[in-house]
């Protein structure tokens, strides 16, 4: 079984869409470890704040099949992909890590570079997996978070039950 980490975010009907996503992930994969939810400003464009979290799950399903399930959940939330990479969205689920897999080529791009680049990914990942070793750096996620400039993109913890 592989331990998989997914990053979830939304800034359109965020609470509803994150509940939908977590519910579907539980239905598909069973037990999840769910991080706290964080609010952050939109990055790269002007728009409503995002709510973000990270979930962990264990699965025998391959990474491409996990991506296929993610796309079906996106469709359920009404997500359509437009030309703008940075825009408001009802739901964004990213495959961050699939076990120790390192595959920089599309469609996998593992581990996802967002892990070390964005507070809204690194903080919730550090909350649920502080001792996890990043497969490229060989360093623990908690260490990366301690060294991260959290003021560069501040987060506010949100009480949201998923």
Can you tell me about this structure?
With 162 residues, the chain is of the alpha+beta class. It has helices at 14-29, 63-76, 114-117, 119-128, 141-147, and strands at 2-10, 33-34, 37-40, 50-59, 92-98, 156-158. α1 (14-29) packs antiparallel against α2 and α4 (119-128) crosses α5 (141-147). The longest helix is centred in the N-terminal third of the chain and has 16 residues, at 14-29. The radius of gyration is 15 Å and the shape is globular.
Labels describing this entry:
single chain; 162 residues; alpha+beta; Alpha-Beta Plaits; 6-stranded antiparallel β-sheet; 22% strand; globular
Present the secondary structure layout.
Layout: E1 2-10, H1 14-29, E2 33-34, E3 37-40, E4 50-59, H2 63-76, E5 92-98, H3 114-117, H4 119-128, H5 141-147, E6 156-158
Antiparallel strand pairs: 1-4, 1-5, 2-4, 3-4, 3-6
Helix pairs in contact: 1-2, 4-5
Briefly say what this structure is.
The chain has 162 residues and is an alpha+beta fold. Helix content is 31%, strand content 22%. It has one domain (2-158): Alpha-Beta Plaits (2-Layer Sandwich).
């Amino acid at each position: 079984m592989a331990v998989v980490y997914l990053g979830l975010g939304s800034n359109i009907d965020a609470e509803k869409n994150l509940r939908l996503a977590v519910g579907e992930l539980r239905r598909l994969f069973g037990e999840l470890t769910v991080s706290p939810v964080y609010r952050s400003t939109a990055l790269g464009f002007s728009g409503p704040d995002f709510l973000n979290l990270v979930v962990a799950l264990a699965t025998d399903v391959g990474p491409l099949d996990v991506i296929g399930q993610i796309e079906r959940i996106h469709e359920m939330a009404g997500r359509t992909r437009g030309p703008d990479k940075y825009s408001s969205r009802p739901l964004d689920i990213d495959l961050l890590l699939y076990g120790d897999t390192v595959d920089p080529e599309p469609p996998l791009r593992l581990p996802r570079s967002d892990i070390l680049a964005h507070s809204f990914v690194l903080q919730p990942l550090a909350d649920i997996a502080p001792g996890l070793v990043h497969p490229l750096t060989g360093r623990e996620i908690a260490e990366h978070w301690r060294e991260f400039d959290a003021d560069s993109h501040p987060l506010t913890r949100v009480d949201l039950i998923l």
